[in-house]
Write a structure and sequence with these properties.
By secondary structure, this protein is mainly beta. Helices cover 0% and strands 69% of the residues. Strands 1, 2, 3, 4, 5, 6, 7 and 8 form an eight-stranded mixed β-sheet that branches. A hairpin with a 2-residue loop joins strand 7 and strand 8.
Length: 84
């Protein structure tokens, strides 16, 4: 089972893919999102997201600045102020 993940900035859709897990730098601490995660919304602090393509894969690390993360039945969407 995979997690649908979208990373969006005000300018463009940066990522749109199915992954195993994403670790998000929430303002109250990092949290991991897998497929089937309970719905949640969180503000995101400046930091990095870790994208795991498969279980036990080495994560791809992407720097982001601020924004919001939403987990719902469709998956995880991160609306970042800036990526990279």
């Amino acid at each position: 089972m995979s997690l649908h993940f979208e990373l969006v900035t005000p300018e463009k859709l940066v990522r749109n893919e199915d992954v195993y897990m994403v670790v998000v730098p929430g303002t109250e601490g990092d949290f991991g999102v897998l497929a089937g995660h309970a719905p949640v919304m969180s503000t995101v602090r400046d930091g990095t997201i870790q994208i795991y393509a498969t279980d036990k894969a080495t994560p791809e690390v992407v720097a982001i600045k601020g924004g919001f993360a939403e987990v719902n039945a469709r998956g995880l969407t991160i609306l970042a102020e800036q990526v990279g």
